[in-house]
Amino acid sequence: MKVGILTLGCKVNMYESEYVINELKKAGYIICDFNDYCDVYIINTCSVTNTSDIKSRKMIRNAIRRNPNSCIVAMGCFIEANKDYTTDGLDIVIGNKDKSKIVSILDNYFKKKEEMRILYKDEYTKFEDMYITDFPGRTRAFVKIQDGCENFCSYCIIPYVRGKCRSKDKDRVIKEINSLVNNGYKEVVLTGIHTGNYGVDINTNFYELLKEIVKIKNLKRLRISSIEITEINSEVISLIKDNNIIVDHMHIPLQAGSNEILKLMNRKYDLDYYFKKIAEIRRVRPNISITTDVIVGFPGETDELFKKTIDTCKKLEFAKIHVFPFSLRKGTKAEELPNHIENGLKKKRSRELLEISKELEIKYFNKFVNKEVEILVEEYKDGYSYGHTSNFLHVKIANKLKHNEFYKVKIINIDYPYCIGEII
Fold first, then answer.
1. DSSP secondary structure string, 56-112?
2. Does the pLDDT of residue 161 top 80, yes or no?
3. What is the pLDDT of residue 348?
4. Closest Cα partner for 320 from 272, 274, 363?
5. Backbone angles phi, psi at 128, to 5 degrees
């Protein structure tokens, strides 16, 4: 049978979808493009914003229209946030538990040809173990080490759809990374819903895990998908200082550049704490690329407070800002807040902050003009090889270079969003 899989949202979803693909292949299913005419369509949904919900519904409807006689599977966060969601033609509904059982779920469906809804009322308390040794076509391998979040930021639906924090067994993480390295992967990305909170439920912590990972033979780069500023403690900073396997890039969400909005968001830090911690990181890694997330148009964000956010971002000299207009999620504390911002103003502020992000990104790129860097080649197209540096500069070189190999390159120019390099 032919299966088309579509993944929406975060790197955790990407990892889970890859596991699903691997399991289906083992069972004899043929994996096709989602836009092909297939026997089964699987949509791994997202619900982080209203836009994510809209896209999830749209992709479900698209699959149903493409082949009304196919088996349509919707799984993930959108389903968890909308447990009563039904639509004609949707055959299997799975939340964020039991994705790993996709083969047996499909087997049961094809035996009975009855609609299946696999959802749970109780919060998830056990990590759903998945194990991947190959990411076909990729040079960067993902390892999901953690699931769930208990921060309950006032704007966020994720704790309600992903459940409590739960962690993958440390030995399993090490074994999985070893397998990936032995299969030729030189760069591994640690991912989770609340990655830096790893170990809270299994009597260990993120530092202890990192300390073991950096010892893995032949692992060249270790990247952390995202980490909260409050979880970059002195031990983690010491490890960053002394170990170059951990890349020169960290994604650390800011979310707002004023203490007033941070408090309304129920974030666990203020600006003074954030600035001091960034300064600590830069003392041990002066050229590090620090990227961030910022939400604009949060309820109560006046023009003055938005200007504070712009000023804060400039002072922190981020290498890139991922900008998100505030999206109201039903059931969150932010829904109850007064002074909601109209959509037109949110879009205007988003555009303004994106321009600031571009300025900061180009400024960061320019630090490396005429400097030597090392890239890991990811693809070759239209006469150029493309790859990323440790600090996540996207470099293109007018040579055909070997896939998944490191090359020393000199940055000679900027052609945003790329740095132009030449082989040394």
1. HHHHHHHHHHH-TTSEEEEEEHHHHHTTT---TT--EEE-SSSGGGHHHHHHHHHHH
2. yes
3. 98
4. 363
5. -85, 105
Give the torsion through C-alpha atoms of 280, 283, 289, 294, to 10 deg. 30
* Distance from chain centroid for Cα 375: 21
Lowest mean pLDDT among 83-92, 312-321, 379-388: 83-92
Domain 253-367, CATH among 3.90.1150.100, 3.30.750.200, 2.70.70.10, 3.30.565.10: 3.30.750.200
Integer CA distances (angstroms), 60 to 93, 100, 223, 255, 258, in order: 11, 20, 33, 31, 39
Question: pLDDT tens across 44-97, in order?
Answer: 999 999 999 999 999 999 999 999 999 999 999 999 999 888 888 899 999 999
30-57 mean pLDDT = 97
Class of domain 2-118 as given by CATH: alpha beta
Given a contact cutoff of 8 angstroms between Cβ atoms, the answer to whether 149 and 159 are in contact is yes
Query: Class assignment of domain 372-423?
Result: mainly beta
Strands 146-147, 418-423: pairing is unpaired
Does the pLDDT at position 122 exceed 70?
no
DSSP three-state, residue 222: strand
Domain boundary assignment for the chain: 2-118, 122-247, 253-367, 372-423
Per-residue pLDDT at 87: 84
User: Which of 65, 63, 92, 95 has the alpha carbon at shortest distance from 78?
Assistant: 95
Q: Which DSSP string corresponds to 345-402? A: HHHHHHHHHHHHHHHHHHHHHHTTTT-EEEEEEEEEETTEEEEEETT--EEEESS---
The CATH architecture annotation of domain 122-247 reads 2-Layer Sandwich (3.30)
Give SS3 for 403: coil
What is the DSSP pairing of strand 187-191 with strand 289-296?
A: unpaired
What is the pairing mode between strands 146-147 and 249-251? unpaired
